[in-house]
Write a structure and sequence with these properties.
Largest sheet: 7 strands, mixed
Strand content: 15-25%
Helix content: 25-40%
Number of strands: 15
Structural class: alpha+beta
Order of helices and strands: EEEHEHEEEHEHHEHEHEEEHEHEH
Shape: globular
Distance between the termini: 45 Å
Number of helices: 10
Length: 271
């Protein structure tokens, strides 16, 4: 794996490269240094070496020194939520008390019937090698990622975007993220519940992920379903989960505004 520290607008992992954008380039914070060290440690834990590069030699020297003396151990708990933050368009560092896993309608039905969210290897009964080569792995995620249920912050729209990508089978265009957007189903959890559950690990990229599965009865905080799908879901939701499922009317808001609307309900809770 290659980690490139840069002055970009956001961080992303794609094609075997982690493009790591600093919030205040060319300054690097203690939180960012610690996040990088845990990414490197996670990679080593999975038998991969990390090549760290940066055009700014001062930053690179800082990072290499920090990594050399830092000795994180599994599950690589972050010092605080800020280590898993993402930047919005204004350059603000975004976190939440809630994290989410978002799926297509059909996948959500199976999750609710089974009462658990499964990792890709468990859900599709495919090997890690097969999933790495699958055409849906456009980002080039490594083999171990498929052993985990992965989460995003509930107040960012990446989950709904990925669900739309899964729904249409390709990267959505602007029209498909706006007037032709089809919202998926989102499952929301309390951040601290997830990082304290069995199988949790921090990889320095995702806010959190959990190996193999997530039991909804034990951990689900809120499931949000578009209201027009109520008839399809009403009879399949287990009794123990019904009061944790809400239906919200979709009025063509598009990806960004829909995610904001959903997050407002998440903050309100169940009442």
């Amino acid at each position: 794996m290659r980690l490139e520290i840069n002055n970009g607008d956001f961080s992303i992992q794609w094609g075997g490269i982690y493009y790591f954008a600093l919030q205040d380039y060319p300054n690097i914070s203690e939180t960012e240094l610690d996040r990088i060290s845990k990414f490197v440690a996670y990679e080593k834990y999975n038998n991969r070496e990390t090549e760290i590069v940066c055009e700014n030699k001062k930053i690179l020297d800082q990072v290499l020194e920090y990594v050399s003396i830092s000795k994180p151990t599994p599950p690589f708990y972050p010092k605080n939520k800020m280590e898993g933050c993402i930047f919005n368009e204004a350059g603000d560092c975004i976190t939440s008390d809630f994290i989410s896993h978002t799926t297509t309608t059909e996948t959500a039905k199976k999750i609710l019937i089974d009462g658990e969210i499964l990792s890709a290897t468990k859900a599709f009964s495919l090997s890690n090698e097969e999933l790495v080569k699958d055409s849906r792995n456009a980002a080039g995620d490594p083999y171990d990622y498929f052993d985990y249920v992965m989460f995003a912050w509930s107040n960012v729209n990446s989950g709904y975007r990925l669900a739309m990508e899964r729904f249409i089978g390709r990267n959505p265009n602007e029209e498909e993220l706006n007037e032709k957007f089809v919202p998926g189903v989102s499952f929301h959890f309390k951040y601290y519940d997830i990082i304290n559950c069995k199988g949790y690990i921090f990889d320095g990229y995702h806010p959190a992920k959990v190996r193999d599965s997530i039991n909804l009865d034990k951990l689900l905080y809120l499931c949000v379903i578009p209201e027009y799908l109520k008839k399809e879901f009403k009879e399949i939701i287990p009794e123990s989960l019904r009061r944790r499922v809400i239906y919200i009317k979709y009025t063509g808001e598009g990806l960004i505004e829909w995610n904001k609307k959903v997050y407002e309900y998440v903050l309100r809770g169940l009442y």
